[in-house]
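Please, structure for the following, as tokens.
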Amino acid sequence: MELIELKKHKMEDEIYICAQCGFCHEVCPIYEEIGWESASPRGKIYWLKHILKPGPLPVIEIDKEFANRFFQCTICGHCSEVCQTKINTPELWKAIRTEIYQRGLWPDVLNELIEALKKEKNVYSMPNDERTIWAMDIEEEIRTKVRKKAKVAYFVGCISSFMGRLADIPLSTVRIMEHAGINFTVLGSEEWCCGNPLFLAGASSLAEEIVRYNVATLCKLGVETLITTCSGCYRAWKQEYPEILKEDLGFEVLHVSQFLAKLVDEGKLKLRSIDGVVTYHDPCEIGRHCNIYEEPRKVLENIPKIKFVELPKTKKDCKCCGGGGMLKATNPELAAKIASRKIDETTEVGANILTSGCPACKLNLMDAIFEREATVEMLDITEVVARALGS
């Protein structure tokens, strides 16, 4: 059976170099929960081998069961990190998801995602002119920022714009910028989804209009630096956009943790001490995918008298929270089980404040905290800094 997307991405060799060693079993959050070989990276690659060159086993069909198994994945990249043969598993999983999409075997919820993006330009099917609903309490301040020319732009992202429980992330970001005297702009209703859900789901072919629109809109405003608080938005802007455009964006893209570290270096943040024992969870999309590890730690460690502790597994070895790779949309119960393990890690090191640099991480971990009735507070790194500023 032919897998066209593997050929197109020149990834057929990746299948055959798998040594079937099983190192990936030890780090895969899906395998840890499900326990089936077919849920592990090694098992999935074995499926693909058998499809490309059928052996004595019964013929494996690319059907709904096959599709669902390949969407039981957070695309966290941990399997690639430990792979002895250096297989680029995140790109492999995305290529297979593209194959699944092309064959019309997507999980049904993703068809709703496409319709939402086509109609409203966001993943929540909400009117896009409500993108500043998060700024309800500072409406007058934000109105003066929307679509004005500025060297710095803040790309809020769908999840923080529309999910009320995450509104404190953009609110904190605005407070920090004002404290540091940063002249910035936001796109408001002219901000479209970054397209990352399409990239992760295997439908990157549908994202070109989004990419070109977002870049052109920012360039019109004379933007030189783009700030994102969403790790998914950051990865999309840094990795996917240049690949589609085949050229430089024309402006710098920074995750907010990098921007905050820069402000710390420049002495623009007057941070005060905060109560609590704080730990930090490395989001997969800015961590393993983009190698941003030191900047958020620099920011946290520069808060006076802070008690900062590390989780048992950190940086490239950090365990995924379960909220990425479209898993929360397609398998919410599985995402919740993975998040619950992160709460165990947090309490194990004696922390009562868990922080991260990703709204998807915050949302999934908040749900786990609520379900567990845990005495842990989940904060984005922008919220921790805003608290240290007294905002």
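The chain is about 45% helix and 5% strand. Residues 127-262 form a domain with the Rossmann fold fold (CATH 3.40.50.1860).
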